[in-house]
């Protein structure tokens, strides 16, 4: 598994920061992007987060046959119907981005299995997801729902795009238990499906960097939904 690619740029940025006094380059920084106090931004964050990190993994865990049928028949109709269930939070955001909700099927790790990669609206904030994956049929020995989440932006302060690197967390949800499986480059659907397939073929316990059970360890990661 190709963990932590393009570390050369990270090293370059950190070295530039360390020797900043000699070469007059600013210190490299790691930034998380979070919504400010604006109700509009917090509502958009809530819609995106709840769809990818609560609604979908909950259905995968509790109604695996239902989501399997939906993805196998009319995936966009099925997923967009779920997306519209969040319109009470911010109806304009939901309507503007509904057509970005789509799915593509890839071969799974076993015969007759599929990995459905679901595309989401571009994430604005951490830890919104770029895309998620549903494994069909569901697995009893490991999670069947995986995420590629917006993580650190590494930059040196110069504003140059070639000196910036957006990283992503590879994660998994098993109901309300979240697993961090490492940090990667942002990747396209095919590469993400390949990453999920590689994960399915390796012992799951050996891949886990961190675990959070939101049932027993509440986190401010779950957004509150402010009134308009």
Topology:
Blueprint: H1 7-18, H2 20-23, E1 29-31, H3 39-62, H4 64-73, H5 75-84, H6 91-97, E2 102-107, E3 114-119, E4 129-136, E5 145-155, E6 164-174, E7 177-185, H7 189-200, E8 210-213
Antiparallel strand pairs: 1-5, 2-3, 3-4, 4-5, 5-6, 6-7, 7-8
Helix pairs in contact: 3-4, 4-5
Structural notes for this entry:
The protein is an alpha+beta fold and about 230 residues long. It is built from seven helices and eight strands. The chain has helices at about 5-20, 20-25, 40-60, 65-75, 75-85, 90-95, 190-200; strands at about 30, 100-105, 115-120, 130-135, 145-155, 165-175, 175-185, 210-215. Strands 1, 2, 3, 4, 5, 6, 7 and 8 form an eight-stranded antiparallel sheet that branches. The relative contact order is 0.18. Residues about 5-30 and about 215-220 have low confidence and may be disordered.
Structural class: alpha+beta
Coarse morphology: globular
In round numbers, the mean pLDDT is 83
Please mark out the parts with pLDDT under 50 across 5 or more consecutive residues, or reply none.
5-28, 215-220
Give a brief outline of the structure.
The chain has 7 helices and 8 strands; from the N terminus they run ααβααααββββββαβ. The chain is an alpha+beta fold and 228 residues long. Strands 1, 2, 3, 4, 5, 6, 7 and 8 form an 8-stranded antiparallel beta sheet that branches.
Characteristic key phrases:
228 residues; alpha+beta; eight-stranded antiparallel β-sheet; 7 helices; globular
